[in-house]
What we know:
2 copies of one chain form a homodimer.
Chain A: E1 3-8, E2 12-18, E3 24-31, H1 38-53, E4 60-65, E5 68-70, E6 75-79, E7 82-88, H2 90-98, E8 101-106, H3 107-118, E9 127-132, E10 136-142, E11 145-146, H4 178-181, H5 183-197, H6 201-206, H7 214-222, H8 226-250, E12 254-258, H9 266-279, E13 289-292, H10 299-312
Parallel strand pairs in A: 1-4, 4-8, 9-12, 12-13
Antiparallel strand pairs in A: 1-2, 2-3, 5-6, 6-7, 9-10, 10-11
Helix pairs in contact in A: 1-2, 3-10, 7-8, 8-9
Amino acid sequence: MKLIGVDLGGTTFSVGLVSEDGKILKKVTRDTLVENGKEDVIRRIAEAILEVADGEETPYVGIGSPGSIDRENGIVRFSPNFPDWHNVPLTDELAKRTGKKVFLENDANAFVLGEKWFGAGRGYDHIVALTLGTGIGGGVVTHGHLLTGRDGIGAELGHVVVEPNGPMCNCGTRGCLEAVSSATAIRRFLREGYKKYHDSLVYKLAGSPEKADAKHLFDAARQGDRFALMIRDRVVDALARAVAGYIHIFNPEIVIIGGGISRAGEILFGPLREKVVDYIMPSFVGTYEIVASPLVEDAGILGAASIIKERIGG
Amino acid sequence: MKLIGVDLGGTTFSVGLVSEDGKILKKVTRDTLVENGKEDVIRRIAEAILEVADGEETPYVGIGSPGSIDRENGIVRFSPNFPDWHNVPLTDELAKRTGKKVFLENDANAFVLGEKWFGAGRGYDHIVALTLGTGIGGGVVTHGHLLTGRDGIGAELGHVVVEPNGPMCNCGTRGCLEAVSSATAIRRFLREGYKKYHDSLVYKLAGSPEKADAKHLFDAARQGDRFALMIRDRVVDALARAVAGYIHIFNPEIVIIGGGISRAGEILFGPLREKVVDYIMPSFVGTYEIVASPLVEDAGILGAASIIKERIGG
């Protein structure tokens, strides 16, 4: 049996045909065109599913969506990326149009499931996963099971406070991990830093303070730029406090970090691993690994496909 | 069937005979006398078990112990309270002496189980519990199951960083919840505050800065003492950030706070509930309760007895 995974994003969506062992056999990516309305988006997702499934036995579809999800009933309650989506019965709508059984999960939960079934989490029962991108998403597998909480809205690992009275977060609280260590936070630090540090390499690499982003930051840090290293340290220190907290809470075998920022490599992971040791109790030293997600650009589709594995059993 | 619960502490231990519905029918409390060596302590616990069990059908014993526990094998790996205890096979030793099947759990895990089976957590599948005492312990039930992690050392909820670069914690990190919101931290704040705030009501109630503790703090705060309210606010603010984090992570039905400090009542819980709302995302508002443990001084024995319920099924 092959799996179909749908990675639904605010700008594009991707649909992939995935083998049982996590290879992407076929893939289409389309513009989401949220502005055309939800009916149109759903219709085009269904078309892409049928296109990708052509001729294959694919009774199941998994879909990972941003926003607040009713996972039991397959409903997107609301999503900042889709202003006109309120309580959309996404799985029913897609099932009607494709004849397949559809499972829905929050995209960060799908990410940790993808790692569990096809990525760095294979063989582990205790996994903490963070996606560092525009926002910071979290997913947790504990004692072999996805942690979702009473209403399915748990594992919001990006919204623990790491800098009391720190920068304002989109969620309305100050100093959340997302407000310090996300790509958005880094762009804001770089814009704000220009006045004082305008001769930093970051701005030369970026061309202008408005264009400066996480990639420029880590590239400049790798070359020893003082300002870039200062921002890098702030981002890593906050992340290390959060990760150390998750290690204390979940006693995981592995902490997997994905999203765009995870591609920074050792300039991020080196000091992160060191700092986490500073922040944990001695009894936790040596109990975990911290790794970058190996799934990279396939994480979305593989995560979505793995929802099927999780729901029907591997 | 009746249950036997053993609450093992560094100063005293208590053994109780507990009914299926969580009433303590008989109870003995003895000095632990750690200085007499572990053989003697174990022998006297076994005697107390047999004394309490006299004439009753009690095939099982649950024991809650501080320190690092190998819950699967019933071994106390080490415990700060018992300097000569290293990898002590406590359940085997007690089983040999009593003829009963013995289950061992970390005391903070026993606390959340006690709440689940006999306290404020009855009927809930998602419970976060904190004990605010000399240290801060944590226990979590998520999706109906006790969270222990890979090595059984998870749910260390007292060791998340709430004040970066804050007071040094016993665990070696700065600014842990335990270093700000435990009874020990409060005593330290009160000693340190004497120089500047020596006319505070706290010190009048206590008699001397050395004697000032959490009870004096909350009593003075209730009477509007400015210094006491300042310390209360710091303690509550740190606790609120941690609790908000746990709500984001576990999406629990209930957060239960026990230990000596939980007896402070509204002077603690009123501002705590308000502050937590400030720190959580809007989608979590109204999803949880925050309550004081109703088990009070019986929490230790009932928690220990509930380990039996958890292991053999209620």
